[in-house]
Amino acid sequence: MKARALAPVVVGLIGAxxxxxxxxxxxxxxQIGPTLLVGIAALTAAAGMLLPRVIARFDSLRREILIVxxxxxxxxxxxxxxxxxxxxxxxxxxxxxxxxxxxxxxxGILVEYSVGRELSADARRLRGTVVRIARGDLQARSGVDRNxxxxxxARSLDTMAATLAAMEAARSDAHATRQAFLAAVGxxxxxxxxxxxxxxxxxxxGLAPDPARYFSSMRADIEAIRxxxxxxxxxxxIEGGNLQFDRVTADLSELADEAVEALTPVAVQKRVRxxxxxxxxxxxxxxxxxxxxxxxxxxxxxxxHAPDGSDVSVALSRxxxxxxxxxxxxxxxxxxxxxxxxxxxxxxIVRPAERGGGAGxxxxxxxxxxxxxxxxxxxxxxxxxxVAFWVPARA
Length: 395
Known about the structure:
Elements (H helix, E strand, L loop, with lengths): L2 H20 L4 H29 L5 H26 L4 H44 L14 H56 L6 H29 L8 E4 H18 L3 E6 L4 E4 L1 H18 L5 E9 L2 E7 L7 H9 L16 H12 L3 E4 L6 E7 L3
Parallel strand pairs: 2-4
Antiparallel strand pairs: 1-3, 4-5, 5-7, 6-7
Helix pairs in contact: 1-2, 2-3, 3-4, 4-5, 5-6, 6-10, 7-8, 8-10
């Protein structure tokens, strides 16, 4: 027998023993005491087992509590009446006992009714919240403020709804980003492919006045497609957690000097001056090719968006047990949208139109490479574009 079925029997036995204890001075109670004991225990056990099955068919918690209260009061009244009869209480005393029991039962029913009304109202709010969530309203909240099991269930339901809402928002953002990313990549692939087809048709039809120049242009388009495919492959490895590289202890100021030297021709075309400043001890265990690519990407981005005749600076310093590399230009600055994308992990996947368009894989790759070193990257407020990243000085 289950524990919940044994509970009414135990309660019945205790009640019967108490009655017998009070009635041991009365001969009639002593004669029928064992029968009374068995009868009360059996009736209590039967009520305790059958009543939950009966009230479970009701559609109102308030009615269930009311039925339970009435049953408890009737059981108590019957027990008191039987006990009074066994003890041979006088009619006047018996009448007074019945009146007092009736008043107590009425007050108890009022209390149970009030409690049941509150419980029923909170249960209805819970049900309504569940229905709204099932219909897709993830902003629905129960508003139930209790400390009991119903309150705990309400808080769990509200937490679940908030979690689902956050997940849905993240899914929508990821879907929108993915759609824009695919559209941008398709655009970046379509442009060189179209140019390749036009040049190839011109060469095949003998319409190219200078075939060597056409072949050079085709080679440049193929190189652009190759770089885009390599960026996509690298980004896929970063997102999949499959990026592996060897760390060596390197001076990041030297990597910055190499990046400046490599991009000096690009800067000269825009009449942009490149400056490098570094503190002592900017040494960290890094993947040299990976961090070099990070610095070059940030520096190239700064040169392309810097006004003609302005300065672009790369500053290196030690901070928080690592090395900070800060790239600053005098351009229009970083838009809040791009800054938010960097924080959310989608930075650079889509570049605003005013920033030059394109698939913009650069910042996404930069972020992935920096985080693969256990570092972080961020945009800074101020005049112009300011982006910085930090890598630990110890592996």
